[in-house]
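Title: Prediction job returns without error message
Component: structure pipeline
Severity: low
Priority: P3
Assignee: unassigned

Description:
Job completed but the reporter wants confirmation the result is attached to the right record. Sequence as submitted:
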Amino acid sequence: MRLRKQSVDPEKRAQVLADALKSKAGREQGYRERALRLFPHLCGRCGREFTGARISELTVHHKDNDHNNNPPAGSHWELLCRACHDREHHDVDALANEAEAPANSSSGGLGFEAFAKLKDLLPDVGESTDPK
């Protein structure tokens, strides 16, 4: 049994095409598309080059961490590969957590010091451990 090829309604086809063009125009106005036009397709950290379908692996990093700050020249952006972008945000989060930790705490903000009593158990540097 042979399937018949269905004809496409010209009005529906025109509507799909108009929607696609509108979507493309909207994307081009987005900061990612602008950044990809402005900057070379290289990761700003590791320097890897991305071409073809691999361009999707590049992300736009906002240097000031303000996603609403999108100047036309892209001065607050840099292109990073996914791995470097994840590392960048991990480093920023770690610094923020460090800043929130109490200044006199050496526990890293865990709320306890695992080796606090160890100092009491060890002899002082000047003491002899040789029992005579």
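Comment from assignee: result matches the submitted record. The chain has four helices and two strands.
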